[in-house]
Amino acid sequence: MPRPIQATIHPEALRANLARVRTLSGDARVWGVVKANAYGHGVEHAFLGLRAVDGFALLDLEEAQRLRALDWRGPILLLEGVFETRDLELCSRLGLWHVVHCEEQIDMLALHKTHAPHRIFLKMNSGMNRLGLRPAAYRSAWTRLNALPQVEEITHMTHFSDADGPLGVAHQVRTFEAATHDLPGERSLSNSAAILRHVGDAAMSADWVRPGIAVYGSSPDFPEHDAGHWGLLPAMTLAAQVIAVQHLQAGDTVGYGSSFSAPGPMRIGIVACGYADGYPRHCPTGTPVLVQGLRTRTLGRVSMDMIAVDLTELPEAGFGSEVTLWGRAASGQVLSIDEVARAGGTVGYELMCGLSARVPVQVDPAA
User: Per the residue annotation, which of 35, 39, 275, 279 is the catalytic one?
Assistant: First the structure.
């Protein structure tokens, strides 16, 4: 029998989350962001729930090829653009749209020989200070691109640094508007946080939105708001089983470093999941977990292959009991991935993307 741990992807949750994003995005077309192997869910698995998007956005040419192999014929956008001139040949062959964020990428396009001109998303650095042309250089870059026969159409694009917090987006929107207000072309602005938190703001009106974490059922501004507040459903469940039960007396310790000491008689379960599976090593005693759909807590340190959980108040739980590390239990109860991530000092994004290759992944058989 295989080790009893399993990740399950829920296409119906992806569909519901996408519908929620559409409701909040007005007439804007929606990119389904599937970078990082669809945030750890698997491009092929995510495609089952996201095929109603208007296009897919990602980073890697290999992921783009996988989407085309799934018979996706719609737009695919390379969010970091190309890294060398020969990448443009594959863009031409696969019909990929791509971001241009620096003068070097314009130089590559100018040297590229193609029969079909390219769709370009020209990215402005409006304050994030990662990728993009600064506002003072943006118009000259647009003019240069617009003159190239290799370019068919240019969409204006920027990315928000603080859409999930109190600083907000207004300062970046002003910068973006000042540099693009009289330039023709479509616009792409909002990420998940901007879609959810700035719905109805006329200044955010755009032709394309780029939801990432929201379609996977995690809140971009947790703990201020949880996924349930935004009407989002978990698209990934990580579940395992209790593989041993131990009975403790007062003073008995649990795990490496003896960091947890029993205050009295306790019953604990040992679960077939550890940091080698992608569960955060730094999750302390008290991290929430569901056993047979009932909420309890972890005890002691997370080890490579196992964690301990408190069964003292769960007399029906024992060897073979279902343990939900995050996501949806068989009984329907939900443990947010964001809660687990916060306990481990990180974010839900990292947990999704950090799922280990040794964990088998299945598509929800009920989907």
Answer: 35
